Amino acid sequence: MNHPSSSPDVVIVGARTAGGATATLLARAGLDVLVVDRSRYGADTLSTHALMRAGVVQIHRWGLLDAVAAAGTPAVRRTTFTYADDEVPITIKPSHGVDALYAPRRTVLDPILVDAARAAGARVQYGTTITDVMRDQTGRVDGVEGRDAAGRIVRHTARWVVGADGLRSIVAKAVDAPIERRGTGATAVVYGYWQGLDVDGYRWIFRPDACAGAIPTNDDQTCIFAAATPAHIGRGGMDVLHDVVAAASPALADRLATALPPAGVRTFGGLPGYLRAPWGPGWALVGDAGHWKDPIGAHGLTDALRDAELLARAITAAASGGATEADAFDHYHQTRNRVSLPLFDVVDTIAGMRWTEAEIPELLRRLSSAMSDEVELVAGLDDHPAIAGARP
Ligand SMILES: Cc1cc2nc3c(=O)[nH]c(=O)nc-3n(C[C@H](O)[C@H](O)[C@H](O)COP(=O)(O)OP(=O)(O)OC[C@H]3O[C@@H](n4cnc5c(N)ncnc54)[C@H](O)[C@@H]3O)c2cc1C
Asked: Can you tell me whether residue 115 is helix, strand or coil?
């Protein structure tokens, strides 16, 4: 039996950071938005969750940073880099309305975005797995089809289909989105949550083939991660995490012994970065569906938040007739690439682990400079109806 169909302006596949943010902005701009996800509200996912400044600036501009803080997410006021013989603390200076960074668990951030989308009028359906896109007689994408939790066929036609469906995006596959750039480096990551570990902000430790760090997060927990080549991490697990942390920083390894360890850790096997062409007739990609950077850069969420706004602006411009779809979506594409490619290239080099201790400071300077450009871009995006309408 077919499930009743609906025909919103935009159907978004994926209800996490990219999908939730895009839906929020589109619904605030007055579009009829449907979001579908095969997962469930508030579920965790395989990801650490440090936000960089551009991401925090976005959440603040959208009026959602108070909810992040109210969920008990600690303010991060310092980032300390360790490399070669140096320990470099950097104080987070107030700018663009934010005076701290945050690393909310995905069980916190994603529901805040989905709640904001719902509050703005978007419909969100969990338990629906999309299997393909639909096309009109001209070949233009005009909807999606899949199955709901009961196994019933679901079809939604829409003016635009947005793939916010992550690394293994079914939308990107169905539209055969071309890969524009492929990375060559990939790190594997193993991480877990320690209770009662008193850390002063983000810690990033860079040693050849043994990177590690600490990310303070909700519930008095600190995410400890170890990143190295996939061969080094192997099948992962607690012993590997300890070994890599000890190789990166014996002092941090010692401190772990003073805190309550997690019952288990999670392991990501690594995947080289990619940049896909993010749009075509009737479709667009956002978040990991369009663009994956190695987690060593801790930047995927910030990318997703930035691109959600760039894409939402493109769709609202096309929907209002203020620009053609081709012009508006091409602007999204070009802006994304202009900001992302410098980040992509330096993160890919770091992820390749082929640098020496003498070279890593310069790579981190390049990363920092690319992130500053990104902050200027997102901070300059004010005065859009979807944003202005959102001020609490
Ligand atoms: C180990 C690791 C550590 C990381 N650490 C950081 C970090 O510290 N900071 C940072 O910024 N980034 C980090 N990242 C990257 C970050 O996790 C991603 O960039 C982020 O998850 C992208 O969000 P998204 O919304 O695009 O996709 P996702 O979070 O993957 O969400 C996609 C959603 O689409 C749904 N979906 C998929 N297919 C279908 C389908 N066919 N039908 C219906 N629904 C579907 C899924 O259920 C999911 O809910 C890390 C990643 C990893 C793997």
From this structure: helix
pLDDT digits (tens, 9 = 90+) for 372-381: 999 999 988 8
Residue 6 banded pLDDT, cuts 50, 70, 90:
low
**Cα dihedral value 330, 336, 342, 347, nearest 10:** -130
Q: Is 351 in the pocket of ligand 1 (CB under 6 A)?
A: no
Ligand 1: nearest atom to the Cα of 292: 19
Kindly give the number of the ligand 1 atom that is closest to the alpha carbon of 288.
Answer: 26
- Output the CA 290–ligand 1 centroid distance in Å: 11
- Alpha helix (H) residue ranges in the chain: 17-28, 53-61, 65-70, 106-119, 170-175, 230-233, 238-248, 250-256, 300-320, 325-351, 360-379, 385-388
Whether 267 is in the pocket of ligand 1, judged by its Cβ within 6 Å, is no
pTM of this structure:
0.96
pLDDT at 385 over 70: no
292 CA to centre of ligand 1 in angstroms: 10
Pocket test for ligand 1, best of 175, 301, 336 (most atoms within 8 A of CB): 301
State the Cα–Cα distance between residues 253 and 84, nearest whole angstrom. Answer: 18
Q: Closest ligand 1 atom, CA of 170? A: 41
- pLDDT by residue (tens digit) across 327-383? 999 999 999 999 999 999 999 999 999 899 999 999 999 999 999 999 999 988 866
